[in-house]
Amino acid sequence: MTSAFGNLSPQQQVLVDQWLPSANVERNHSWGLVATTVLEITHAGSRFIVKAGGGDDHHIQRELHAHLNWLDPWTSRGRAPTLVYGSAAAKLIVTRYLPGELVLDSEHADEPSTYRQAGELLALLHGQTRVTDDDYERRENEKSLALLSQPHRIAAATVERLKAEIPAWPTPASALVPTHGDWQPRNWLIRDDVVSVIDFGRAAMRPAFTDFARLDVQDFRRDPKLDTAFLAGYGTDPRETAAWYRNRVREAIATAVWAYRVGDEPFEAQGHRMIAEALSSD
């Protein structure tokens, strides 16, 4: 095993050496803003991706759960990486390498056909199961209020308005489906004009419209034709007005607070814009 595995914990290094002995690191795909290590490795002539979480990571467990329970509609079509090994206790997974180019910042990021495929793929994920949760809205409200108590640079008057508004929101029962949690071009690959999906660290049961949140404030905002193409692939528009508004506000708060915490100023600015635009649409 090469020294490039040094970002892994001793337990993680031992497991990788057991699973894929004498593997070599070819490329480090780690994002850098979070304590998750993503390595492209080779072993016995095949390529794999090793993803390892840090000490306080909770994404690897979600990713492993998604692989074991929800990804078959994609993996059976070759549209998502397949799980090879995984350990929730060690916060470690190994998947087969899925070839392709990231859609983000590529020419495909502005092609309606890309978004139609992404809509079709998302419909496959969402369509597997549906449950009713009477407490989802209340929990999400509490998370947003807790975030507003953390360090951030949201204007005091805006914080005051949000702290007054959120507790007054209704908390109806919610229909939850398997969601990706970060559905946007940075988690899509394309090869020979075919779109595939990666990164399931935020996968969870949520309302279907939550997977529209990233696209709505970025790509759909840039070009409405991409919204139209996505809906043509997905089949329906789950952005019900009242619940969608509440989700927009929650996403905006989370974006501004998280981006401030990790020092991502452009993303923080997007969060502040999202807050202003959501509140102005009320």
From TrEMBL:
Stored InterPro entries: Aminoglycoside_PTrfase, Kinase-like_dom_sf
Pfam families in the cross-refs: APH (PF01636)
Domain Aminoglycoside phosphotransferase residues, every copy: 62-244
Signal peptide: none
Record-given protein name: Phosphotransferase
Species the sequence originates in: Dactylosporangium cerinum
